[in-house]
Design a protein that fits this description.
This protein has 83 residues and is α+β, with helices and mostly antiparallel strands. The chain contains three helices and six strands. A hairpin with a 2-residue loop joins strand 5 and strand 6.
Length: 83
């Protein structure tokens, strides 16, 4: 199965490592540092022009990507059937 993240971006559900709420996770300097490092390494994918609400860590070990999504983490969890 696939998970739709926004616009025309989908990832395989089995490749999703984590779904994170931007408001609650970016309070930590470690999370901000992680996202900044991913941006510098060109490993981020912005899947919308709207205000981001979540980020998704997905991919295989050698090709991890951070997807910035306008969808809430709750919506994404529901889409993959966790909630």
């Amino acid at each position: 199965m696939y998970l739709h993240l926004g616009l025309e971006t989908v990832v395989k559900e089995k490749d999703v490592i984590g779904i994170f709420d931007l408001d609650s996770t970016t309070v930590s300097k470690h999370t901000r540092k992680f996202i900044n490092k991913a941006e510098k390494e060109k490993k981020t994918v912005n899947v919308s022009y709207e205000l981001p609400k979540s980020f998704i860590l997905a991919g295989e070990k050698q090709n991890l990507k951070v997807y910035i999504s306008p969808l809430s983490s709750l919506t994404l969890y529901k889409r993959i059937g966790i909630l």
